[in-house]
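Q: Cytidine deaminase, please. Structure only.
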Amino acid sequence: MTESATTDPVKPEPKTNLSDAALIAAAQAARRHAHAPYSKFSVGAVIQTRDGRFYTGCNIENASFGLTVCAERVALFKALSEGERAFRAVVIAADAATPTPPCGACRQVLWEFCGDIRIVSTNPQGVTGEWSLAALLPAAFDDQNLKPLDQTPAQAAETPAPQSTSTQS
Ligand SMILES: O=c1ccn([C@H]2C[C@H](O)[C@@H](CO)O2)c(=O)[nH]1
Ligand SMILES: [Zn+2]
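A: Structure for Cytidine deaminase:
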């Protein structure tokens, strides 16, 4: 059977035309679930899919500090694990004087799956910031950088066919 949005029992129903205000409210609600006893900096996030679904996340810290996962990656990984691959926006809610941008690790992971996505961030006072991910992560490293020089399309076209060689001497 072909898997579709309507037959998948775990996928939420799409909610199209959600306003920024509604996404911000969802991010603020997700923030309340943060596990941040070490930093005391609770963060909530929402990732919106192109077809109008959204997935929430909060930061989840650990006594082994380096195992902490940010709210943005929790939201993204929840969406990815439901099969989502096309994203429209990320919304972040934190309590800081200026809107909190995603950390460097989250920028890199978001770039992998979202490309140049819209990022909105807000604080409880309603101060809101907005960036494109490309502005936050210039000269991004991605799969294009993993291609060796002799396998780029231009090089491949110029490369002569391999000569037949014998392994016997
Ligand atoms: O955009 C951000 C920035 C920070 N954090 C978390 C990581 C850590 O738990 C705490 C302090 O850095 O906030 C996020 O979840 N998202
Ligand atoms: Zn992060």
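A: Brief note, in case it's useful. The chain has one domain: 20-158.
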